[in-house]
């Protein structure tokens, strides 16, 4: 029995060591940093092919992808004598630390350069149960990104069950990445995707510079969730003076400061855009960080009453996303805030 256990332990150890070798020596070279999402692969390649076309970048989740219209922003810039040619690198479901991973690699790996970058600033997301074990949930979890994720949560004051779930799924997903779960299949998917990659005139990358509008209006059955989003935002604005000096997640702030630093080294001016959040606890985590960020400008757009023209019910596609009409107003307000901060 003892010999069987020893053999089993040796086999498991060898399997782990082999997987770690494959992870560090092979898969990190075969698969690009954006391999977990076809949409990310698409946007990355489009940017690489059109590096000289754009001098500004928006990056974030669907709240960037579907809410910030580069052509409107650029038009407002031209009206004010500014040469801004922006691209929307937002992708639905892109988590905050994942977006920093993508942006950092656009600079360091692809050697892209911009004049301005606008990074959506949200609290660290936790995934839904149905997305557990998906490639998208773990492809970006390098040892460093895993450490940032875990330490940011551990140093936060989020509700205990939310914190526990985050620690669990990030650890599980990180283990899956290290053990190369599904990577042979993903490699062939990636090669097939690249071989058939085309950018047609009707592609959103070409038509809208990466932006995709949401044309529909929110269903009346979603009004209660909309009210929850509005209520959380109003509470955050009301409590803002009390929250600015509350406990903050230092590892998350450190990660943001690192991004600001590498941008500055390349002559890029960093702006953070803070959109509406789902829950009040997200504002509790973000507001102290907003107050401590150094070297970047922050555009806060969660004041429901101040931006009442944007956040009318008819301007929403769902409780947390603006439709095309709302996105136009949202983009114009981002530019207005940018212009106020420009040169400061």
UniProtKB/TrEMBL annotation:
Classification via SUPFAM superfamilies: SGNH hydrolase
Full protein name: DUF1574 domain-containing protein
């Amino acid at each position: 029995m003892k010999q069987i256990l020893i053999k089993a332990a040796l086999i498991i150890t060898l399997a782990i060591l082999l997987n770690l070798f494959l992870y560090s020596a092979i898969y990190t070279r075969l698969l690009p940093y954006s391999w977990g999402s076809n949409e990310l692969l698409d946007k990355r390649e489009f940017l690489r092919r059109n590096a000289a076309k754009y001098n500004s970048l928006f990056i974030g989740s669907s709240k960037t992808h579907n809410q910030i219209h580069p052509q409107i922003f650029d038009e407002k810039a031209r009206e004010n004598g500014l040469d801004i040619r922006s691209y929307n690198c937002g992708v639905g479901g892109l988590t905050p630390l994942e977006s920093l991973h993508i942006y950092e690699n656009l600079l360091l790996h692809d050697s892209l350069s911009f004049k301005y970058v606008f990074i959506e600033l949200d609290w660290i997301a936790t995934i839904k149960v149905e997305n557990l074990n998906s490639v998208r949930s773990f492809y970006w979890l390098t040892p460093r990104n895993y450490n940032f994720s875990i330490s940011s949560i551990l140093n936060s004051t989020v509700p205990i069950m939310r914190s526990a779930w985050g620690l669990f799924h990030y650890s599980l997903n990180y283990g899956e990445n290290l053990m190369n779960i599904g990577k042979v299949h993903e490699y062939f998917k990636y090669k097939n995707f690249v071989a058939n990659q085309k950018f047609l005139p009707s592609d959103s990358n070409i038509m809208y510079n990466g932006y995709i509008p949401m044309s529909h209006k929110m269903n009346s059955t979603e009004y209660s969730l909309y009210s929850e989003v509005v209520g959380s935002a109003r509470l955050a604005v009301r409590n803002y003076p009390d929250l600015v000096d509350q406990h903050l997640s230092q590892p998350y702030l450190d990660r943001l400061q690192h991004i600001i630093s590498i941008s500055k080294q390349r002559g890029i001016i960093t702006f953070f855009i803070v959109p509406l959040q789902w829950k009040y606890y997200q504002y509790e985590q973000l507001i102290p960080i907003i107050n401590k960020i150094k070297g970047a400008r922050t555009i806060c757009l969660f004041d429901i009453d101040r931006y009442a023209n944007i956040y009318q019910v008819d301007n929403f596609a769902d409780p947390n996303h603006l439709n095309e009409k709302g996105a136009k107003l949202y983009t114009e307000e981002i530019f207005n805030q940018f212009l106020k901060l420009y040169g400061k």
